[in-house]
Every structure is written in C-alpha cells, then in structure tokens.
Amino acid sequence: MVRGISLAVALAATLGLSGAQAREGAPATVAVTVPTSQALSPLDALVSDYEAWNLAQSPISAGQNGDRAALSKLPDVTPAADAARKAALEGFKARLDAIPAASLDADGQLNRAFLARLISDNLGYIAFDTGRFAFSSDDGFHLLAPYVATVTPINSVADAEAWLGRMGALAKYYDDNIANARRGIRTGWLQPRMISEIVLGQAQAALKIAPEADPLMTPFRAMSPAIAAAEQAALKARALAIITGQVRPAQQRFATFVEKEYLPKTKAALGVGSVPGGKDYYAFLARRFTTTSLTPDEIHALGEREVARIRAEMDAVRAEAGFSGTHAEFLAFLRSDPQFYVTTRQALLEKASEVAKRIDDQLPRYFGTLPRLPYGVRPVPAEIEKGYTSGRYFPGSASQGIAGGYMVNTYALDQRGLYELPALTLHEAVPGHHLQIALAQELEGVPAFRRDADMTAFVEGWALYAESLGTEMGIYRTPYEKFGRLSMEMWRACRLVSDTGLHWLGWSLDEARKCFTENTALSSLNIEVELARYVGWPGQALAYKVGELKIKELRKRAETALGAKFDIRRFHDAVLLAGPLPMDLLEVRIDAWIAAEKTRT
C-alpha cells in the first residue's frame, strides 16, 4: 500500500478531498476565478488552467514538485475553502462539457474523460462534506506533518525557513480540523468508538515526546553542512520554540477535544452505513475507489468467489510443502515456528533488501521502461510503528533529491513472517508501487493531473498484480513463500468481503475478522491493525482486488488476441506509460494497443 502513512498520498495533486476519507490532502489556497491560457485549444487551455489551479490547492504536492512558495504552507480544510473549491470545479465542469468529445483525437478524448471523472469525484466528496471525518486509526491531519518531515530536506537556510513556516501553520491547521470534527459531532458523522480510542492514544502519545525528539525536528537533524554551525543552532532553537509555544498547545487541544467532546458522543457501531446518509456515501466510495459501476453487493459476492478460489490454491501449496495437517494447523505452524522469523530489526531490513535486489535483477526481462529514480529500504518511523501495517511505500521526489522509500515495519518481529516478505516487497517496492509511481512521475507528454491522480484501483491493483508477477520472475523460492503470496492475495479478497460486510451489511468486528483468521497466514497484530484501517477508511480496501483482476483480464485478452506477437515488456509499458488510469479508460487504452500490435511487423 502506498502512502501510506497513507498520508503519503498527500503528495498527490488530486484535490477537493478533505479529512480522513481523502488521503490526497486538501487545498492550501482557494481561487474561484481562473485565467484562461492563450493560444491553446479549448481542452489544452482547460487542462493548463486546471493543473495550475490544482497545484495551488495542494501545497504539499506543489512543494514536492518544486514550488518554493508552497513549502511553507499547509492544506486549507475550512468549509469556506470547500465552498470556493466547489465553485471553481463547477466552472471547470462547465468548460469541459462545452467541448464535444467527438472533436478530439484519442489523447484528447482520454484527457477529457479523465478530467471529467476527477471533477465529478471531487465534487462528490465536497457534497458529502468529508472533512467531518478528520482522522482515522492510521491517518489524519495530526499525522500529516510528522510524515512530511521525513521527506523534507534542509539544504539551505531558505529550506529551513520554509519548514519553520509550515511548522508555524500547524496550530491553525489543528484548530480548523477540530472545527470540522465538531461539525461531524453535530451532524452525526463520527468515527466509531474503537477508532476514536486509537486516535486518542496517538494524540496523548505525541504530547509525551520531548521537543528535541519530536518528529518535526527530523529535517533539522540532517541539515546541509553548507549551513554554518551557528546558523544551524539558531534554526533549531526557533523550531523548538515553535514546538513548545505553538504545536504542543495545539496538540493538547486536540487530545482534550477527542477525550472530552468526541469520545463521549461516539457509538459502538462500526460501519459508515450507520451515519446519516452513510449508505449513499459508501456506494459512492465503492464507485470512486474501484473506478467501476460495481455495487457493494456485487463486490461482496466477488470477494466470496475469490476467497473460495484462492483457498483451493492454498490447499495445493500446503500439499506441496509436505504438511499433513489441516489448513488451520498449517496457519498455526506458520505463525509460530521460529524458522519464519528474525530476532533483530536489522536482520528484517537485510532480508527485505536481499529480496528487493533479487527482484531488481529480473526487471529488464519484464519491463521495457524503468524509472530513473531509485528507492531505498527503510524502517517505519518508530513513533508510528506500533499501529502501522507491515509495509508501505513513500513516494520520492527527483526535484528534491529524495529516493522512493520501501518502508518495512520492524516492530513486533514475532509478527513479521518471512514467508510474506517476497510478496510484500513485490507490492511496495518493485515492480509494484515504486516502479509504477516513479515512472508516472517521470512521464513526459502526459498532463500532470494524470501523472499525479490518485486512481486507487490502478495503483493498488497494479501492486497486487506485481505480487503474482513474482511467480513468473522466480522470486518465490519455497512452498512457504508461495503460500505467503496466496495469503497476501487472500488478504485482499477478504477485504472485499469484510469492508462491504462492515459498511454495507452492518457486520460486527468478529464477523469481519473471521475471513482473515480462517484463511490467511496474517499475524493477529496485522489483522487487528488492518481491521481498524477498514473501519476508519471505508471503501479504499475494495480497490486492490478489483484493479488486479481487471489488469489480469486485459493481459489475458492481449495474450489471446496476439498469440506469438504478445510481448510482456511492451504490454507492461502500455499499462504503465499513460500514468494511473481508471479501469474503464485503461481498458480502452489496452484494446487500442492490441489493435496496433496486430499490425506491427
């Protein structure tokens, strides 16, 4: 999973999605009147205006893309910002509707259709006022700045001043988000009690960190030696003063708010379907995250079919391993046998690094185009590792000199089965998230709004497809690692069942947990962390399997149509080199590619 902290998607330039339900981050400034570019076609002018406006709304993304002024700003999450954003989006929609699709070439039609979807999705989020969900168990406004600190280099005094400015903006950012959550209380849009208790623990833990050790100080711990020592000391002193004088009081206000105002109003009900209008919201989320017209009931049924199929494959691999016991006994064996676990954090990082390099070795055989930006294998930051998933990907930035990050959770080593490590690495690093996202960042001739779009079904579907590609690449060396891959795939199938169960069918946590405990080799800790994420972030979990199945379907279609002409490297380029696409637009692109390949000599 990218972004992971899922807040890493705050680096994406998709706007209009405020609060915990929108991991892309909300706008920093609002502009309703947008100048029209000159000497461009109507569509190109619209795209140019939209992209300029979009970046202006997304300071974290803009800063990552080289906008110096944006480096000192944070998102604007106020209702006034949403209202102005809505007006601007409606203006873009009117301009787009006035451009006939039939008047455009293939690229123009793709851009028009894609932009129409983004505008519609963003207007949908604003209509549901998702800022009312200001936080979730592993995400939220209170975790944004600590994450951004990990990808903020200080190479000059100007860089330091920008980060100090962003730190200084945190108090208002906290207060604005608290106001949004209060609006959630008034309207019945609250996170469930279990999520609120987790967030309260996070808020209270942040208050206990010594200012000198605060994550916000991370950029100051690796300042460029070009900055004089005295200047560095002065900058650090100013940062500490902001933490003690502004940030800590804001964090205290948040912790007090959650404990005294929010928690007492929360309910035990878990699903978003239990809030006013929640069923309509969840149906919207299902469409938005899968980029399909599938209904929650159809997705639930799809999940049940996938669980049955994968379970049969698991039985075959268990027999290959020579294990004579039952499925449940095999899961217990995997979860407890010392051969599948390391005893030091460094050993887990080294294991992950070795797997990553073996995958790197195979990439040229399967991909015609590889990204220039490298990636590193890093531990999940200690301050968030306890409630964090087993691995995530943090996007890099060539303009800021930051490599992509394959983040490995080295907490609770007895819960990190090595049999899952190859699949995890294929998903989070290469050929999964890093390869796909870094390639998208480097695309030329593709509009920025497409390169940076958060198309979850594509991004996560591709990463899940990458796990299965590891079989062809020879990455899985033992039956246990093969089973680990199937366990990871079963995890995503159970997501379809459990997410729809929780939010659409009104399941309890025990009902949602059952699929994972009975079918996957996931540790108990991972299962509980994941369930909390699904409760707090409805709909996102649906994207993985739906996207993966569509990519596999398109590959099978291409192999059947092209026969001996099918080239896996060219197919992967066709999938990746237009940036992340909605599933219907990806299908149009691959069908056109198949037709072109048939005529290629």
Beta-strand percentage range? under 5%
Query: Low-confidence spans: pLDDT under 50, at least 5 residues?
Result: 3-37
Mean of all residue-level pLDDT scores: 92
Number of helices: 23
What's the SSE pattern?
A: HHHHEEHHHHHHHHHEEEHHHHHHHHHH
Distance between the amino and carboxyl termini? 39 Å
Q: Characterize the largest beta sheet: strand count, sense, and whether it forms a barrel.
A: 3 strands, mixed
Radius of gyration in whole Å, from Cα? 23 Å
Alpha-beta content class: mainly alpha
Q: How many distinct beta strands?
A: 5
Biggest sheet: strand arrangement: 3-5-4
Q: Name the overall outline.
A: globular
**Percentage of residues in helical conformation:** 55-70%
Protein described:
The protein is mostly helical and 601 residues long. Helix content is 60%, strand content 3%. It contains 23 helices and 5 strands. The chain has helices at 42-57, 59-64, 79-97, 106-128, 141-150, 157-168, 170-187, 193-207, 229-262, 278-290, 296-320, 327-336, 345-366, 421-428, 433-442, 448-451, 456-473, 479-503, 509-519, 524-536, 543-562, 568-576, 583-599; strands at 135-136, 139-140, 375-379, 391-394, 404-408. It has a 3-stranded mixed sheet, covered by helices on one side. A hairpin with a 2-residue loop joins β1 (135-136) and β2 (139-140). The longest helix has 34 residues, at 229-262. The two termini are 39 Å apart. Mean pLDDT is 92; it is low at 3-37.
